[in-house]
Amino acid sequence: MPDRITDDIRAILGDYGRLAVEVKSLADQSNLYEAGLTSHASVTLMLALEERFNIEFPDRMLRRGAFASIATIRASLEELIGAGA
Fold first, then answer.
1. What angle is formed at CA 71 by the lines to CA 67 and CA 76, rounded to 5 degrees?
2. pTM metric for this prediction
């Protein structure tokens, strides 16, 4: 399941992240803000993730660090998907 989640995150990031680099060139731990993710793009990314995974990010996760890397996004999604299961 984590591989599918990561693939989906990467696809959504490619569509909505407006990064300065190709998503495929990033490691899971790469800093997305250093790769060009803006605050505005992170909101769009969050909304696309919520729609794709049918979840809602709680207020406690609405912080810059939650979207800092593919790995942190995946950890948040796994927590929310697990909580909803």
1. 60
2. 0.91
